[in-house]
């Protein structure tokens, strides 16, 4: 399974009472594929506010986005949690919904050992025929998966990629030791170009909601050998990469979508919407 170079970790649109806004979700899927050039979409990841989505909502999202994408982009379901049995349950639901792969986050809060992390992912991968993308995001999970554990997991046939948010040094170690066909994606927009430069596959992105077309051009320029053009585009995009994370994600990317004419509603508690001053600062960053 090839998920492409530019994958968007899609927000979940909500209406004025906090329910999923299906009309806005459909518009967003079309916009991310057609206007922002996403090769794949992650549904119900952290950016999609997975902690506050019910299993019923997640299943409905998986089915809806698969149908709406209609083969124009791959659909990756966020089915990871800190409960292995629950993650297996969600992964089976996602497989039945017709998704193309699953994204599994390192278990959070319960702080497993490296062996615990390995056994967690191994058990989920064994429960499905779907391709599995690992997700290491230490700032959210506290426990961090080491390069050694990632490479050990990469030997499992259907674990095909990782989204890595640790240091560039760790990304380098994984790329250097990865078996053929195992792909490494950056999970940090601001290092998309450096990760490509050391052999990474691409980015699982938040900023691609807003500047995905520019990011795709940057990626293609680098791959075509137009390094100076890619570097210039990186510099141009960098303020957006950083600015969208001045508040907890996805608060500002949801606000930004509203500012560019793609309203997706607010966030669910315990997140709170940006205030007027924060939105004014965001407006100055947008293209």
UniProtKB/TrEMBL annotation:
Reaction(s) catalysed (UniProt annotation): L-aspartate 4-semialdehyde + pyruvate = (2S,4S)-4-hydroxy-2,3,4,5-tetrahydrodipicolinate + H2O + H(+)
Residues given in the record as pyruvate binding sites: 47, 204
Primary location class: cytoplasm
CDD domains, alphabetized: DHDPS
Enzyme class at the top of the EC tree: lyase
Keyword Transcription: no
Cell compartment(s), UniProt: Cytoplasm
Enzyme Commission number(s): 4.3.3.7
Residues with site note (Part of a proton relay during catalysis): 46, 109
Pathway: Amino-acid biosynthesis; L-lysine biosynthesis via DAP pathway; (S)-tetrahydrodipicolinate from L-aspartate: step 3/4
Domain of life of the native organism: Bacteria
Catalytic site positions: 135, 163
InterPro entries: Aldolase_TIM, DapA, DapA-like, Schiff_base-form_aldolases_CS
GO molecular function, one term: 4-hydroxy-tetrahydrodipicolinate synthase activity
Annotated keywords: Amino-acid biosynthesis, Cytoplasm, Diaminopimelate biosynthesis, Lyase, Lysine biosynthesis, Schiff base
Protein purpose: Catalyzes the condensation of (S)-aspartate-beta-semialdehyde [(S)-ASA] and pyruvate to 4-hydroxy-tetrahydrodipicolinate (HTPA).
HAMAP family with a match to the protein in the record: DapA
Family membership noted in the UniProt record: Belongs to the DapA family.
Assembly information from the UniProt record: Homotetramer; dimer of dimers.
Name of the protein in question: 4-hydroxy-tetrahydrodipicolinate synthase
Annotated source species: Paenibacillus xanthanilyticus
